[in-house]
Amino acid sequence: MSVTQTTPQTGAPTPRQVSLVDCDIHPTLTMPELQKRISERWRRHLDRFGRRTPMITEFYPRTANAGFRLDSWPEGPGGFPGSDLGLLQTQLLDEFDIDYGILNSLGLLNCHEMPELAAEMARALNDWMVEWMDEEPRLLGAMVVPYEYPELAVKEIERCAGDPRWVQLIFPDSAEDPLGSRKYWPIYEAATGHGLPIAVHTAGYWPHLDTGWPSYYLEEHVANSMRMQSQLTNFICEGTFTQFPDMRLVLTEAGVAWVVPLTWALDSAWEQLKEDSPPIDRRPSEIVREHVWFTTQPIEEPDTPEEFAQMISQAGLEDRLLFATDYPHWDFDSPTQALPRSIGDELRQKILAGNAAELYGLPLAPPE
Amino acid sequence: MKVVVAPLEDFPPDTRKLVRVGAREIGVFRVGDSFYAVRNRCPHQGAPLCVGRVFSRIVSEQPGQFELADGPPLLVCPWHGWQYDVSTGQSYSPGDPRVKSYGVSVEPGSELVEGPYVVETYSVTVSEQYVVLEA
Fold first, then answer.
1. A189: exposed, middle or buried (C-beta count within 10 Å: 0-12, 13-18, 19+)?
2. What tens digit of pLDDT does each residue of B71-115 get?
3. Burial (Cβ within 10 Å: 0-12, 13-18, ≥19) of residue A126
4. Could you point out which of A68, A175, B8, B77 has its C-alpha 20 to 30 Å from the C-alpha of B18?
5. Which residues lie below 8 Å from residue A143, measured CB to CB, with a gap of 6+?
6. ipTM score above 0.90
7. Distance, CA of A26 to CA of A13 (rounded, Å)
8. Is the dihedral of CA A171, A175, A181, A185 positive or negative?
9. In angstroms, rounded to a whole number, what is the distance separating the alpha carbons of residues A344 and A335?
């Protein structure tokens, strides 16, 4: 999407600027709606055998409120949080006057299906999100691809990439191989070639660390950031960013502050061990600063608001934080309440809109 | 200001009603034969608190034994799960802000027809009982 700037005519009112971008909204394509959009062969398969992986409401340990805001269930039979565009508009876009919101579908992220089914599901999800974006110009999309089959994924990227409303590609934070692996490089090459950042979102086949299974959701919820640290470390150590100098990574729903000690550790280890890691051509902290963005929901919350402001400043993340509500999930952040006042208006505006507008090249005026 | 919420017979046990009083939205709860009312706005992030679940407290003398406690239940925010005593609005976590609570009573129509009560929705008759919110 190209950035459009208009010069105000003398006497004309100054156009309103984009002031709020929500970088993590979760739409859900229900199973009956998915079935309508895939071929007879795979419809029959889903009817008879179902999906390989459970829905979020069936995960163990159980998520809080089955994963969703209790007020986000549409009325009537068959409704699911995030499945009703009207409710999403009322409850989120209108309620908080959001200028742009990015649809991050998780519909294929915990789902290692057979290649053709995965490809059909990705296409169905993308076509359905285009229907929503046609109806609601405030919505933008994260493209879904069958990432375990890079040649099919690249086909889907090429099919969709002409539409500028796709502003990024979405990956889960755990897949068959570590995400920096060369297996996935053709996907990063195609996405980066089209100027699309890669969003990595909490989800995947390994809902926990390789340390064994937790008893409680509290432990699993906090472990989201630990998995993301492993993936970021892998991206760096595999030389993915060295291979793709224009690649941009948006780490979504996995915290923020941990990046500081992680890059300290990587920098000092790299000084000593770099002979063993030829793909890394400079200090890992520099790589992260150049290539990586973070969404705010959830963000670490120190005991006092002052410490929150300090944390962002010490991390040097002023230009890298993107506001996200995580609607309709249970831990939704309110755009008007979630960020502490201690961060000041300038930084607040960057987090709420400016950084996202720059990263995604959004028009600076809101859609009509 | 007193607001007539509903005739008692239209407000069965373990149900709730949302009432708008000026700019405020207030949730009125009936739990058994007790009535409670709190503001429909969670002090944490502004969620519609009164959409949340109502739970009895659980008390335990020792591991493996527990029972439901008598007394006012907890109201749990539908977003992040913050919990409030539905009678006082006190947060379950010490130090967290409370939600505003209001008095609710059941009064005979003979008291109410005299005014000065706000009766917009119901025509009050002398012979019935009414749930009345003090807001």
1. middle
2. 889 999 999 999 999 999 999 888 889 999 999 999 988 777 766
3. buried
4. A68
5. A126, A156, A157, A160, A161, A166, A168, A169, A170, A196
6. no
7. 35
8. negative
9. 15
Structure tokens at B9: 């017979």
Query: Are B78 and B51 within 8 A, CB to CB?
Result: yes
- Cβ neighbours of residue A365 under 8 Å, at least 6 residues apart? A4, A6, A15, A16, A17, A18
Which residues in chain A are contacts of B81 at CB distance < 8 A?
Answer: 64-65, 330
Residue A1, pLDDT > 70, answer no
Give the phi and the psi of residue B129 in degrees, each rounded to 5.
Answer: -100, 145
E strand intervals along chain A: 21-25, 100-103, 139-144, 166-174, 198-204, 249-252, 292-295, 321-322
**Strand bridging mode A100-103 / A21-25:** parallel
Decide: residue A53, CB within 10 A, 0-12 exposed, 13-18 middle, 19+ buried.
middle
End-to-end Cα spacing for chain A: 16
Lowest mean pLDDT among A301-315, A350-364, B68-82: A301-315
Q: What is the pTM of this model?
A: 0.87
List, for residues A246-287, the tens digit of each pLDDT value.
Answer: 999 999 999 999 999 999 999 999 999 988 877 898 999 999
Of B46, B48, B52, the CB nearest to A336: B46
Q: Is the dihedral of CA A221, A32, A108, A190 positive or negative?
A: negative
User: Nearest chain B Cα to A68, which residue?
Assistant: B79
Helix axes A284-291, A217-237, angle to 10 degrees: 110
Nearest CA in chain B to A333: B45
Tokens standing for A308?
């929150």
Q: Which two tokens stand for residue B126?
A: 């002398």
